[in-house]
Amino acid sequence: MSLEDSCRVDFAALRAERRAKVFSGMESHGLDALVLGGAGNVHYVCGARVLGRAGVLPFAPVCVVVRSTGRVHLLSTWDEGVPPEIEREDLYPLSWDPANLMRSVASIPGLRESRRAGTDGLTASTGAMVVSLASGAELVDGGAVVEACRRVKTDAEITCLEVAAAISESALSAMSAALGPGVSERELLGVYSEHVAQLGAPVPPSESVCFSAGGAGPVEFRSAASDRVVGDGEMVVLAPGALYAGYEAGLARTVVAGSGSGGGGGGGSALGERCAAGMDALVGACRAGGVGADLYRAWERAGVGPASVVLAHGLGLGAEPPVIGLGLGRDAVLEEGMVLSVQSWVADEGVGGCLQRDTVVIDASGPVVLTRYGRP
């Protein structure tokens, strides 16, 4: 089998597999309908291409799933980017008037007969409207149902994540080549954005892809690039991510700017070694049947310092539960087929900070690191 064939995804089969998991989850939880607004949940259920956008939007009934009819309905005024299994009659139009929108939703076949409906979010005004769609229906948390479906990835989903990981690694190489004394963080961001766009992934999952981690004072773990110029011998965190078919993967390495640095995180310094030790400990704890507390214990045994950032979180159609770190997620169960973004961050005042991050699949035989870019 060629590399091209091994990376090929049957997206129609992938969408059908996801829908089957959702309908099965609805049946097991006794849900007659799902009213969804979260971008990741909507994409998972219907597979429609989601436009890139900035900012936070209030809840809206973007996708409606009806178990009795086996149909998925989508808020859309056109069928561009909508999979063929969602037919034109399954679309309902957008309206600035919530009452008009709800009337369109109410006309969806089988919805009014629902006795138990789930939703992944509400605003103050839409709660009563959603209840009114099916008179007397019980409204419950439907987000947990979709979350359970999304948690364990299929083989096709893993392939999508592998492609996203490869794009991220290519972007890291481009950013490393552009890194040097005098370059600004925003210039590195521009290199990243241009590179992933050239590889066919023009919508980045985040602009949090680089920051200087050196300096004489306290080192800040930052989430946004600035106009700050990199100094000679300074440690810089490069943390690119990428999306493929909606699935996100990414990695992070800390590189020293300037000649003679060797390109490693701290040039083989004690800080870099501590960061690597923390990463090895965390990845080793990502085993099926374990819990989030195992990652806490692994970090503590490694003795690399306080856990000042999230140690790991779920990854798939963007960031997903569980979140493990900063006191959260100790009881989260790790299952075979889950994918985690695992990260190790250590910092010393007056020395700098070092970050390593990888995308990890929990396999039956143990953790499998999808991002294979070398670590110093």
Structure explained in plain terms:
The chain has 376 residues and is α+β, with helices and mostly antiparallel strands. Helix content is 32%, strand content 21%. The chain is built from ten helices and 16 strands. The chain has helices spanning 3-6, 11-28, 39-46, 98-106, 126-133, 143-151, 155-178, 185-198, 270-284, 292-302; strands spanning 33-36, 63-66, 71-75, 91-92, 116-119, 138-141, 210-212, 235-238, 241-244, 247-250, 253-256, 312-316, 318-324, 339-348, 352-363, 366-369. The strands form four sheets. A six-stranded mixed sheet has the order 4-3-2-1-5-6. Helix 7 packs across helix 8 (185-198).
Structural class: alpha+beta
Please, what is the average pLDDT? 90
Please, how many helices? 10
DSSP strand (E) fraction?
Answer: 15-25%
Distance between the termini: 33 Å
Based on CA inertia axes, which overall geometry fits? elongated
